[in-house]
Amino acid sequence: YILIDPFQHQLFKKDYISAGPAQSESAEWVIPAFYNVIDAIHKRFAVSRELARLFDDRLRTLSASDSPLEFSSLEVSSRFLMDFAAELAIRLPPSFDQVAHLYFKTTFRQFEVSHPTQTFEDRHSNNMADSSGQNRVDKAINCTDQAHHSYRDGAKGDDRDQQQRPRRRRTLTPQTERNVMDLLDDDDTDDELVERMFHEGHSAAGAESLAKEGPMQSYLDLCHKMGEIGFASRMTDVVTRVLYDRVEAKIFNSFKKRWDMATLDKGKDWVTSTILPFLRLTLLPKKDQGDFTAKKRYKMWSSRLLFYFHKTFGDLRIEEFFNIIVECPDSKPAILDLQECIEWTGQREQLQKAFLTAINKRLLHPGAETTDIIEFYISTIKYLRILDPSGVMLDRAARAINRYLRTRDDTMRAIVSCIVDDSSDLLTTSTEGIQANAEADDEGTDDESWMPEPKNAGPDLSSARRRMADIISVLGNIYDTNVRFMEEFQTILADRLLKAIDFNVDREVRQLELLKLRFGEADLQHCEVMLADVAESKRINANIRSVRPEMPVSATIASRCYWPDIESETLELPEAFKRMLEEYSAAFQILKPAKKLNLFPSLGMVELELELQDRTFQMNVEPIHASIIYLFEEQDMWTLSAMSAKLQVANDVLEQKMQFWIREGVVREIERFYYQVIENVSSS
């Protein structure tokens, strides 16, 4: 009588749920319909329970009299409650959970719209404001209030369902469950953390103010009735599933690919101002807020939801971790958010495995440029040192990247180029403590900040941590020695010094001094000699010009034993250029008679002023480019083969060099391998 008739409602028919308005995003129709069903069951339950209690009272009255009748010690009301719970479980329609899920999902959506997210500061200011705000009406669910108005004063029953422990969420892993239960079992320490997190987001008074709102009173009434008829456990499972789904949707819809700002705190504000108040109203609809059992149940599910929020947020950022590193340094707020999530959830191993898989698939392959790999490596070092100061994650990632970089011939040159690049700040970062870290031993240290090695560190973590104290040291030790790094730096330094036609090497001097702080002076002596040669060359050129002011040539004079091998391409300079170099050699011989000068005509730079009919160019070009354009002084049109014979340069090399003047708009290719100077742009 109590169960069968209400469950015949069309709401629980399979076809109605699968094809009807239940599939619509706007499913407000389910709120009054579901309430009517629960209310009908509760009314019949309340009447039958009251009859059972009256019968118990009558039995107790007869038992107290002198009647010889013996009555069973089992009260009828208690037997009724047990039989009702059993019958309820048997006769529940298969679609009940689906309908309940739709009801709670719709109610929560309306609750979320009518109670927007507030920050802690906003909520604090609202609590200090006038209490008249408690009288506001939730227009979004007025239809709920109207449909439920006649059922708000249902009978109250016993609270035995509060003793039931909610089932664990199937979406949480065993490790997750262990962490959650560890959080719940430690009442002395972790409960304080839980209480602080909850009450910062919403106080008990705040929840009471929500409960006093007319529309929400109908929802509280329904939750209370479901608890009385034995639906508390099932209701908790459905509501938490709705909240879990909403947390996941919120994270992926609002925070995905938003790496340039801190979003974790915004998400926690949303949880504490929307998710947890709704959970509180559901689990504690009419209970005493000081009841220990109810409070413990609420704290448990609140802790699980907070943990699930951090876990899901961490999963998203772990999935995006490769792209976050690519966007370094703009994505640093996302790294700080991920660091906090990892502290909550212990997802370091998950991050490590996902990151190694991503770099093997997306980075360590022949299609990636070596410079791109090095830049990514540098960003990885910066971010992993934030996420894992122990160095375990960085050590594992570095092993995989180093192993691949050793297979490339241009690795060291790309490393040095990244380090000495003008836009790089690697050389300007602080070097304080590097030498101390390199010489210190983990055992027997007196450092108060010392921490034991992680259990998954491996036997060589101590040395790995010392190597990783400085990014340049990490990059330089890819080959387990600094020799190749020094040789490559010397080669790049030589290229830059030879192109410094104004002899301004302040940048190179500064970089050398910074490198000496990291690697010592012994390995960089040749570089010091190279810089000394540049300074000496500047003095020699000044002395020559003091004697011959019209001298157009200035040279960088290198000490053969200290500079790397200088490779010069074959180039037959025009006669005018040859005469200039011969005059300079003669002047140098007079100034330094004990030394022999060997010129490299294809190296260096030429200050060029090019005058055409309608325009003038001033630029610094390589000698081969100057030689090419000088040929057009003799005639306006040249073939590629004729220029090749004149300059003694291969055709393919010369064709490539010609593209420079074509891009500048000085020369055009009128036919294949036929070139003509453009004197006037308007007539071309």
From TrEMBL:
<dbReference type="GO" id="GO:0031625">
    <property type="term" value="F:ubiquitin protein ligase binding"/>
</dbReference>
<dbReference type="GO" id="GO:0006511">
    <property type="term" value="P:ubiquitin-dependent protein catabolic process"/>
</dbReference>
<feature type="compositionally biased region" description="Acidic residues">
    <location>
        <begin position="439"/>
        <end position="450"/>
    </location>
</feature>
<comment type="similarity">
    <text>Belongs to the cullin family.</text>
</comment>
<dbReference type="Pfam" id="PF25773">
    <property type="entry name" value="TPR_ANAPC2"/>
</dbReference>
<feature type="domain" description="Cullin family profile">
    <location>
        <begin position="485"/>
        <end position="662"/>
    </location>
</feature>
<dbReference type="Pfam" id="PF26557">
    <property type="entry name" value="Cullin_AB"/>
</dbReference>
<dbReference type="InterPro" id="IPR059120">
    <property type="entry name" value="Cullin-like_AB"/>
</dbReference>
<dbReference type="InterPro" id="IPR016158">
    <property type="entry name" value="Cullin_homology"/>
</dbReference>
<feature type="region of interest" description="Disordered">
    <location>
        <begin position="118"/>
        <end position="137"/>
    </location>
</feature>
<feature type="region of interest" description="Disordered">
    <location>
        <begin position="433"/>
        <end position="462"/>
    </location>
</feature>
<feature type="compositionally biased region" description="Basic and acidic residues">
    <location>
        <begin position="148"/>
        <end position="164"/>
    </location>
</feature>
<feature type="region of interest" description="Disordered">
    <location>
        <begin position="148"/>
        <end position="181"/>
    </location>
</feature>
<dbReference type="GO" id="GO:0005680">
    <property type="term" value="C:anaphase-promoting complex"/>
</dbReference>
<dbReference type="InterPro" id="IPR036317">
    <property type="entry name" value="Cullin_homology_sf"/>
</dbReference>
<dbReference type="GO" id="GO:0070979">
    <property type="term" value="P:protein K11-linked ubiquitination"/>
</dbReference>
<dbReference type="GO" id="GO:0007091">
    <property type="term" value="P:metaphase/anaphase transition of mitotic cell cycle"/>
</dbReference>
<dbReference type="InterPro" id="IPR044554">
    <property type="entry name" value="ANAPC2"/>
</dbReference>
<protein>
    <submittedName>
        <fullName>Anaphase-promoting complex subunit 2</fullName>
    </submittedName>
</protein>
<feature type="compositionally biased region" description="Polar residues">
    <location>
        <begin position="126"/>
        <end position="135"/>
    </location>
</feature>
<dbReference type="InterPro" id="IPR057975">
    <property type="entry name" value="TPR_ANAPC2"/>
</dbReference>
